Amino acid sequence: MRSPKSVERDFIAYEKYNLFPQAKLHTQWPGSGTVGDPIFDQFMAETLPMIGDAKVREAVNRDATIALLDRIGPAILMPHSQSAAPVWLVADARPQLVKALLMVEAGTSSFYEVKLVGPPHWFEDGPLAKPFGITYAPITYDPPVTGVEDFRLVRQEKPDAPELARCWLPQEPAPKLINFKNIPTLQMSAEASFGAPTAHCNAALLKQVAVPVDFIRLADIGIRGNGHFLMLEKNNLEIAAVIADWLDKRVTPSETAAGEKTTR
């Protein structure tokens, strides 16, 4: 379980630690975001220990969610943070039961971890965490992929912008995630989250492997100052409205059309 100070540094009060270029833009947390503030202390009190082994954590959450879908039927899945990886695996295993994926601040790095180390260099290379791009465990590609070497990864020589990390992406022709072709997917990135430097890499990978993803940077549509836990921040209803609008455009119309065909 994380210590309060590490939660403060890594998840809430980024602006006080300046470990990545966007940290200074964080303004939406309600309160000081530091240990001793009532809102922070309530947040900390709600945290629980997690399974330390990421491979095991991914597998047990995958299996539990598949079992839930098998019981309740079709659903829209909305993971956050580390829950992205098992949800990708769930959608791969039960594509007919996943009506849409709302990846809200979820799975913002692909293949390799990126360490946030502060100025002047900001980023250091971390370990290989997702050998299948978005997951640790195998996921269904066409042609089949047995490990990271099958992607023939290429590293960007220069980042897309100074405040962004360099991406690892497959050489073309890239393998395709064939079970996602009918699953509308939203990837949403907050302006001041620790995921902001790498979210574009994940979006680029998803498009390359044929996931029908819409990548929304909140700052690009005028919603600024949010961190990783955007659902708890001062403007969360504004963010919820963006999600609802996306669902209306990308999910509801197809459901309506299907209903019309059934009644004719």
Provide a descriptive summary of the structure in words:
This protein is an alpha/beta fold. The protein has a single domain, classed as 3-Layer(aba) Sandwich (Rossmann fold), CATH 3.40.50. It has seven helices and eight strands, in the order αααβαββββββαβαα. It has helices at 4-12, 38-45, 54-72, 84-93, 199-208, 236-250, 252-263; strands spanning 75-77, 98-104, 112-118, 122-128, 153-155, 168-170, 185-189, 213-217. Helix 3 crosses helix 4. The model is unreliable at 256-264 (pLDDT under 50).
Tally of domains: 1
The residue-averaged pLDDT reads 93
What is the string of helix and strand elements?
HHHEHEEEEEEHEHH
The overall strand count is: 8
Q: Which fold name is given in CATH as the topology?
A: Rossmann fold
- Which CATH C-level class is it? Alpha Beta
Q: Please state the structural category.
A: alpha/beta
Strand residues, percent: 15-25%
Taking pLDDT < 50 over at least 5 consecutive residues as the criterion, the unreliable ranges are: 256-264
Give the N-terminus to C-terminus distance in angstroms: 56 Å
Instruction: Give the spatial strand order of the biggest sheet.
Output: 1-2-7-8
- Give the overall shape: globular
Give the helix tally: 7
Q: How is the main sheet built?
A: 4 strands, parallel
Overall CATH architecture = 3-Layer(aba) Sandwich
